[in-house]
Design brief:
Its main location: membrane. This protein is α+β, with helices and mostly antiparallel strands and 471 residues long. The chain has two domains: 15-56 and 257-468, MetI-like fold, CATH 1.10.3720.10; 75-242, Jelly Rolls (Sandwich). The protein is built from 17 helices and eleven strands.
Length: 471
């Protein structure tokens, strides 16, 4: 008759019983659901964001078409059509004609303006460097047909850079000022240093500027001269109306899409928390097992070392070293872990000493069992739940510490972590200026991750502490 194989147990429970105990409470179910959300979003972020996203985030040219300090696009769904949205014009006619050695490219599109606050700017983007690098670059003239039957002619403007910004060109400012002077007898309507583009969408009523709502038609004519062999193709051209609202989570002072910044923070903050907690627990387990299992002078030395580590002011030291050595985020993680294992090591040591004094351990020693056999078969199965518990409870502390150090502008503030977003929000007075979308979401996400692991720890307590299971 075959000998029945002994079932693997941890603290007297099989793995299936541990799982059942964890999910028996509502806390365990909620913790598992939230953790799955955290992991799924982190994986999604790693898939959709480029590997060099930190470089992209710190490249101002990448975000230059976005509005600055723009609230999320869904704000208009709540308060009505107040802010003009960001529009990438794709629906336009594109015709090419040649006459007298000049190529005429006519682009026509319409937009329906129904908002209280107009578009900030109009950008013409040419994605072919051969076009805007010509010795005699193309020029563009723009005619804007307004809902009241009036029209404004702008340009001609040279296309000598990748991005041509319509409203800041001196010719355009002068032409818009001239239009308001002729139509409404108002001189210098465009303030010095401001863009003229918003004033394309205003009229004057009783001496006050009011939005002129309705359909607008834009006719752009590009002139490419005969000596130029390269012409503008449809695929070379982008037209962008810069809005006053943007994306799912708005923008910051540089036009960063904050949704992408928040998304990038998921894998970074999760990795930082787990890595820091893992290093802490590994060091604590090694120190605790060696000290508790061997005792004597080894135990005395390791406990004095543990006391020294516990007394170290970890956060102030992290600030000092980050300033002195310009530490990256990963340097901060390793340092934080190295100086934070003391309390966990003491817990592991106390458990090992209690288990070591048990009668069945003494019987195993008398029977000739080796220390490694005792450690593998009697000690580790009993402390594994505590190790996992310590791992879970150390994660939120690591994430909060990282957020705090990033909030001070230290240790890898070039990464778009949630703490970094909060740092720059504070730096530019986001909260006092009413830019709530720059402050509240990253703060809530830091709290969210901490809550996920705190709930996981709470649901794990009945597994770790048998008295909670049996009352």
């Amino acid at each position: 008759m075959a000998k029945k194989q002994r079932e693997f147990r941890i603290l007297g429970m099989t793995p299936s019983e541990i799982t059942k105990e964890f999910f028996s409470s509502g806390t365990g179910k909620v913790a598992a659901a939230l953790f799955i959300v955290l992991v799924v979003v982190s994986i999604y972020a790693l898939i959709v964001l480029p590997p060099n996203f930190a470089n992209v985030w710190n490249n101002p040219k990448y975000w230059e078409l976005n509005p600055q300090y723009a609230p999320p696009a869904w704000v208009d769904s709540i308060i009505g059509p107040v802010y003009s949205p960001q529009i990438y014009v794709n629906d336009y006619t594109f015709t090419v004609q040649q006459q007298s050695g000049v190529t005429y490219i006519t682009v026509t599109f319409s937009v329906n303006y129904k908002y209280d606050k107009p578009w900030n700017e109009l950008f013409i983007v040419i994605n072919n460097p051969a076009i805007y690098s010509m010795s005699q670059p193309p020029v563009v003239s723009i005619t804007v047909y307004r809902p009241d039957g009036s029209k404004i002619t702008l340009g001609p403007l040279p296309i000598n850079t990748k991005v041509t910004t319509l409203g800041v060109a001196p010719e355009v400012v002068s032409q818009v000022n001239l239009f308001y002077n002729e139509e409404y007898h108002i001189s210098s309507i465009v303030p010095t240093g401001s863009s003229a583009t918003p004033y394309l969408f205003y009229t004057v009523d009783n001496g006050k500027l009011v939005p002129l709502k309705g359909p607008y038609k834009f006719v752009m004519v590009f002139y490419v001269f005969s000596q130029n062999s390269t012409v503008i193709n449809r695929n070379d051209l982008e037209i962008v109306l810069q809005g006053q609202i943007y994306g799912l989570m708005g923008t910051d002072n540089e036009g960063h899409d904050l949704w992408l910044g928040l998304l990038a923070g998921f894998p970074i903050d999760l990795a930082v928390g787990l890595l820091s907690a893992l290093i802490i627990v590994v060091i604590a387990v090694i120190i605790g097992i060696v000290a508790g299992f061997y005792g004597g002078l080894v135990d005395e030395f390791l406990m004095r070392l543990t006391d020294f580590v516990i007394l170290l002011p970890a956060f102030p030291l992290l600030i000092v070293f980050s300033v002195l050595f310009g530490w990256s985020i990963w340097d901060a993680v390793v340092f934080l872990a190295i100086v934070s294992w003391g309390a966990s090591a003491r817990i592991i040591r106390a458990m090992i000493m209690q288990i070591r004094s048990a009668q069945y351990i003494e019987s195993a020693v008398i029977a000739g069992a080796s220390r490694m056999w005792i450690l593998r078969n009697h000690i580790l199965p009993q402390i594994i739940p505590y190790i996992l518990y310590l791992l879970v409870t150390n994660v939120p502390g690591a994430i909060l510490t990282l957020a705090s150090i990033n909030f001070l502008g230290l240790a890898g503030s070039e990464y778009p972590t949630w703490g970094t977003l909060l740092y720059y929000a504070d730096e530019f007075g986001a909260l006092t200026s009413g830019y709530w979308w720059w402050v509240i979401p990253p703060g809530l996400l830091v709290a969210f991750v901490a809550v996920v692991f705190i709930l996981t720890a709470m649901a794990s307590e009945p597994v770790v502490n048998p008295r909670l299971r049996y009352g």
